[in-house]
Design goal:
The complex is a heterodimer of chains A (about 425) and B (about 190).
Chain A (H helix, E strand, L loop, with lengths): L1 H18 L10 H10 L19 H12 L11 H4 L44 H10 L8 H10 L1 H11 L21 H8 L3 H22 L3 E2 L3 H10 L3 H7 L2 H11 L18 E2 L15 H10 L17 H4 L12 E2 L21 H10 L17 H12 L5 E2 L10
Antiparallel strand pairs in A: 1-4, 2-3
Chain B lengths: L2 H16 L6 H5 L7 H4 L41 E3 L6 E6 L10 E8 L10 E8 L4 E2 L5 E7 L2 E7 L5 E11 L2 E11 L1
Antiparallel strand pairs in B: 1-2, 2-3, 3-7, 4-5, 4-8, 6-7, 8-9
The chains are: A mainly alpha (about 425), B mainly beta (about 190).
Bound molecules: copper (II) ion.
Copper (II) ion binds next to loops of chain B.
Chain lengths: ~425, ~190
């Protein structure tokens, strides 16, 4: 009786499968095909060199960076590594609304996948290179909570690090003299660490900071290899561009196609989420300050000022770039009302793994995100650039289904997606 | 098994067969080494294009923004890079130093300013603005003249276009009492 039921079910299923769904082949216009192709992962150009980091594409530096990324010794309490908040199995995020390191961080952990393509780092873009970015959390009291002398001493005393470092960057000085090189010294807010730092000679401070900046460069070499792989959406675009009707049907259903149409049409999403990473890497105010309990945060307005004066900027002595390579920093927009309450547009790849969403993790589901865009509430800080969308509940659902097709594997050497052995 | 159970199972099969696309992730995830996405993808056939019909513009702010957002790119869009300014005070031309102009690449332009009769002007004050008329957003950077090159030529640095489509560059030129401006259009693919 039971197998009979299954047979009947199978017959009914086969019948419905054959007749219930009309063909999914869509007539995308030439202009629409161009748009789809521009979002296709195959349109992602090879990652350009980072002129500020001479070891950015050095395989040994990436190996060292991989170790540093997972090393909890690089923290004030021995418990925090980059990978604490950027976990490979959560698309390099942490699943929390607001990050938690040695203390509470007032922002949400974004993914690092593909961020090497961005000219700006952090939600407010206060860093202009990936290696300089890495040096932020290491000395932040609420993240790694460490100091650069502490980090440098770990490199010198761990034989594996010592050798790896010297192979890439040249001789590591001896830092054993604790009076010359205190174990916790850095130019940070903490009064004790700061006093220890100012007590050092300028030359010794320079030595330490050079080692510290090189750690950032190695970490960046690792992060530059963490890239997005093709998603189901990319397969669908290929099928469209190849006029392959069977493959189109195979990869996208009707709701997903309608969701895609809304995404590039009525939803107006592509004004900011465009290119193969679905981000313009620019800063926008989307009115999230209207959500209760959002930490007060002016975003880019402060971020760009920070970037201009950053100790490790493209124009700094620790950068390997020539002045001519620092265009982003030199020609950045520094004033304007539109910078207030603006944050960097994030990628939309791998959204199933990066919830909750937004710079303070204010929205926990994709439906909540789309409904937020649909309402486009007035910002409490600055002015929202959004207009209400008038999407029906059904359209909200279709848009969500489309966004879910942007999930894909991480394209990286497999070893690099787990702690080093 | 009850009839109801049968229907539930049937519905389940229907939903797998007709709604869920086949699991393609496994095939794609099989990246043993680090292959760039380009290598893994088949190149699609080249395809013709027509005008970039974008999306609804959002609100605009500040003096960075273009004029009122427009719905469509004019069919006869004037793409000349060599023009008389709006009130005929200057002859202006712009030449990109990056050829072809690429998306998301910081680059420079050479600006040439002269009197309508062709006499070069070397002491002009120049302001550069721009954006995407159909999207209502400004340039992502703040380009400016960084150097006079002589014979009416100026080096404009800090231009980066961050998406495909129709862009405008508006050049405002001042010498003594004479202010005038000129707007160039380009369409990036
Ligand atoms: Cu645009």
């Amino acid at each position: 009786m039971q197998w009979k039921a299954f047979t009947i079910a199978g017959v009914i299923a086969a019948f419905f499968a054959a007749t219930a769904q009309p063909a999914q082949v869509q007539d995308w216009s030439g202009a629409e095909r161009d748009i789809l192709k521009s979002f296709w992962i195959g349109s992602l150009p090879p990652l350009a060199k980072d002129p500020s980091n001479h070891v950015g594409d050095n395989a040994n530096a990436a190996k060292l960076g991989h170790k540093l990324f997972f090393d909890k010794r690089l923290s004030g309490n021995g418990e925090v590594a980059c990978a604490t908040c950027h976990q490979p199995d959560k698309a390099f995020t942490d699943g929390l609304p607001l990050a938690q390191g040695m203390g509470a961080v007032p922002r949400h952990s974004p993914t690092i996948i593909g961020t090497a393509y961005s000219p700006w780092f952090f939600w407010d873009g206060r860093k202009d290179s990936q290696w300089s970015q890495a040096l932020g959390p290491m000395e932040s009291p609420v993240e790694h909570g460490g100091t650069r002398t502490h980090f440098a001493k770990i490199l010198v005393s761990d034989p594996a690090y010592h050798k790896a470092y010297e192979d890439i960057f040249g001789v590591l000085p001896d830092l054993l003299d604790n009076r010359r090189f205190p174990s916790a010294a850095a130019p940070i807010d903490d009064a004790t660490a700061r006093a220890a730092w100012t007590g050092m000679t300028a030359a010794d401070r320079q030595t330490i900071t050079r080692i510290y900046s090189n750690m950032g460069k190695a970490i960046s070499a690792y992060e530059r290899l963490i890239l997005p792989g093709p998603s189901r959406f990319d397969r669908y675009v290929e099928a469209v561009l190849n006029d392959d009707a069977n493959a189109q049907e195979q990869f996208f259903n009707k709701d997903e196609i309608d969701g895609l149409r809304l995404f590039i049409g009525k939803g107006n999403c592509t004004q900011c989420h465009n290119g193969p990473l679905l981000t313009n890497n620019d800063f926008h105010n989307t009115g999230l300050s209207s959500i209760a309990d959002t930490p007060e945060d002016v975003g880019r307005a402060a971020g760009v000022k920070s970037a201009k004066t950053d100790e490790f900027s493209c124009l700094s002595q620790f950068s390997d770039a020539d002045d001519g390579d620092c265009g982003e920093l030199k020609f950045a927009k520094v004033t304007g009302a539109e910078l207030v309450g603006s944050f960097k547009t994030p990628t939309l790849r791998n959204l199933t793994q990066t919830a909750p969403y937004m710079h303070a993790g204010q929205l926990s589901t994709l439906v909540a995100v789309i409904e937020f865009y649909n309402r486009a509430p007035t910002a409490k800080l600055g002015h929202s650039e959004l207009l209400p969308l008038d999407l029906t509940a059904r359209e909200v659902g279709q848009m969500e289904k489309f966004l879910l097709t942007l999930d894909g594997p991480i394209s990286a050497p497999r070893d690099y997606l787990a702690p080093p052995r | 098994m009850s009839r109801f159970g049968t229907l539930v199972i049937a519905a389940f099969f229907v939903s797998i067969f007709s709604l869920t696309p086949p699991p393609v992730a496994a095939k794609m995830a099989a990246s043993d080494g680090h292959t760039s996405s380009d290598e893994k993808m088949k190149m699609p056939k080249a395809h013709g294009h027509s005008d970039h019909s974008g999306h609804k513009p959002t609100k605009m702010h500040g003096d960075h923004s273009e004029q009122k957002p427009v719905k469509k790119m004019p069919k006869d869009l004037d793409m000349a890079m060599d023009k008389l300014s709006e009130h005929g005070k200057y002859k202006v031309s712009m030449t990109s130093r990056l050829n072809p102009v690429a998306i998301n690449k910081m680059h420079g332009w050479t600006l040439q300013v002269s009197k309508p009769d062709g006499t070069p002007i070397d002491d002009a004050k120049v302001k550069i603005a721009g954006g995407m008329p159909m999207h209502g957003h400004a340039l992502p950077t703040m380009p400016r003249v960084t150097k006079g090159l002589g014979e009416g030529k100026y080096l404009v640095e800090g231009v980066r276009f961050n998406m495909a489509g129709w862009w405008k560059l508006k050049i405002t030129i001042g010498t003594g009492h004479h202010m005038d401006n000129v707007t160039f259009s380009l369409v990036l693919k």
